[in-house]
Amino acid sequence: MLSYRHGFHAGNFADVLKHAVLTQIVRSLLRKPAPFFYLDTHAGAGRYDLESAMAKQNREHRSGIERLWKLPSVPPELEDYLAAVRMLNPGGRLRFYPGSPLIVRHFLRGGERMVLCELHGTEVLSLRSLFAGERRITVHPTDGYQGLKAFLPPPERRGLVLCDPSFELRNERERMTEAAAGAWKRWPTGIFAYWYPIQDRRTADRLRRKFRQTGIDRLLAMELSVLPESGDKRMNGSGMIVINPPWRLDEHMKTLLPWLHATLSPEGEGGWRLEWLAGEPD
């Protein structure tokens, strides 16, 4: 469970989808003046060097963030996300990629608070160094699912949880849906975003069914695949299931998903999907 390092995959097409959705949700929370709370259950290192040995092994960012980096224009739904990436690359040359904690940190106002959970010892050290001196950001070397129990509900009442485990364990999908149901019961007004890889359609659909069976009453699912869903061990796409999605998130993603598919899969392989698993749009 502790072998996974996101540095091998930073900035890939799955990160683009995950962080585009993340910034849309954060922007929705910023529309109200009351502070919000952010919990990241599998926070990673926080920042990744795309010229490191890890990143160079597969160069996955080349088929992800690099394809967006120098485009003359992008949809409005991507502007905030790209602004957060540019924050780390002020000279205009793509060298560093922000993880989810650093992306959210980019948008925080004075009253917001972040809790970051991570089990990998090296990643914990990176997080603590990255956010040293920031009292409103705390790093906990703990299992993210335990974090859902320990830190929810927050006193802020408003906020977002991001859960994106490595899926190294066979029962990860069961752990995720069980934890999601419990966390929603503890904090029914919170927004929760759950990321998952897509290797084959059958496994992805089984996870969606498990979420439906939790009884959670508002569930929006979105998926982006850039390769055919062949059923082998490679990741062909990824998805996000959002509990209590903010207003118009579905509309924004209906615009963004086909654009991302055309840009990140120029050969037209794979596809995209957007579906309410429970509840209806506001």
Characterize the quaternary organization of these chains: single chain
- Main sheet record: 8 strands, mixed
Instruction: State the strand order across the main sheet.
Output: 5-4-1-6-7-9-8-10
The overall pLDDT, averaged over residues, is: 94
Structural class: alpha/beta
User: What is the count of DSSP helices, taking H or I runs of 4+ residues?
Assistant: 10
What form results from the Cα inertia axes? globular
Number of strands: 10
Q: Helix share of residues?
A: 25-40%
Proportion of β residues? 15-25%
What is the straight-line distance between the termini?
A: 39 Å
Structure description:
The protein has 282 residues and is α/β, with parallel strands linked by helices. Helices cover 38% and strands 19% of the residues. The chain has helices at residues 13-29, 53-58, 65-69, 76-87, 100-107, 121-130, 144-150, 172-186, 201-212, 249-264; strands at residues 37-40, 47-49, 96-98, 113-117, 137-140, 159-163, 191-198, 219-225, 237-243, 271-278. α1 (13-29) crosses α4 (76-87) and α1 runs antiparallel to α10. The longest helix is centred in the N-terminal third of the chain and has 17 residues, at 13-29. The termini are far apart. The mean pLDDT is 94.
